[in-house]
Amino acid sequence: MVDRYFAVPRLAELYDSFSSHRRDFDFYLPLLLSADRVLDVGCGTGELLHLAREAGHAGRLCGLDPADAMLDQARKRSDIDWVLGDLSTSEWSEEFDLVVMTGHAFQVFIDDDQLRNSLSAIRRALTAGGRFAFETRNPLARAWERWTPEHAAEIVFRGQDVRMATNVETPVTGDLVTFTHTFTSPRWTEPEISRSTLRFLDADTLAESLLKAGFRIEDQFGDWERQPLTDASPEIITIAVRA
Question: Is 189 helix (H, G, I), strand (E, B) or coil?
Fold first, then answer.
């Protein structure tokens, strides 16, 4: 679920290099360490769960992702449960104290039915009083306006240069942003290109959706330093409790 364009096997190997120095992990890791049973929805390569184990988490850790190539990277640790699928295929009932969605995975719920069903599945998976922690980009910050080829990311992985450039389809209307990622390397015969759509929910719509799904917002922040949420905040970081 996280960064579906990395589902191609050779790109899955590159994911952690493109996503290095993640400040969100500094926020989420203490939450994981304070919960006995944790589900990471859209876990990708499983790096956050790996870090939790390395930090001494002795309870149940479970990662869910629809991309087998990403889970191939995650399975480097066998002391964590790795599940291929998504929330529509899950049947957990009151099994986790904490559910997290990192890497803006929450934004892949692009229509109301998908959002409603996913929140219902997350609530069902949580124990009474369990918490759901996630983030979504604040639409008022208009992050997509900086997703241009001029801001392409470049890495060196095992001696090969790889470039990731983004192009947003314009005009952007409503709360959906569609874009393509183009991955290129001098060693490849052709680029890898993917197209994705993300939903940018505003804070009021998000709060209403959580309330209808049976959650209470416990905390909300505008950035990874836990500053208050404002119109200028880049993120809407939310910790919600199963009501």
Answer: coil
Q: Is 108 left (phi over 0), alpha (psi -120 to 50) or beta?
A: alpha
Number of domains in the chain: 2
Does residue 95 contact residue 116 with C-beta atoms inside 8 Å?
no
Residue 205: how many other CB atoms lie within 10 Å? 15
Beta strand 192-199 with 160-168: parallel, antiparallel or unpaired?
unpaired
Helices (H) and strands (E) in the chain, counts: 7, 11
Residue 3 has pLDDT above 60, yes or no: no
> Do 151 and 228 belong to one domain?
no
pTM of the predicted model over 0.85: yes
Q: What is the pLDDT of residues 164-192, one digit of tens each?
A: 999 999 999 899 999 999 999 999 999 99
Which helix (H) or strand (E) segment holds residue 124: the answer is helix 112-125
How far apart, in whole angstroms, are the C-alpha atoms of residue 83 and residue 203? Answer: 31
User: Measured in Å, how far apart are the chain's first and last C-alpha atoms?
Assistant: 26
Residues 120 and 144 in one domain: no
Tell me: do 76 and 17 sit in the same domain. yes
Q: What is the DSSP string of 39-50?
A: EEET-TT-HHHH
The domain of 179 spans 140-198
Same domain? 21 vs 31: yes
pLDDT of residue 2: 43
Q: Is 52 helix (H, G, I), strand (E, B) or coil?
A: helix
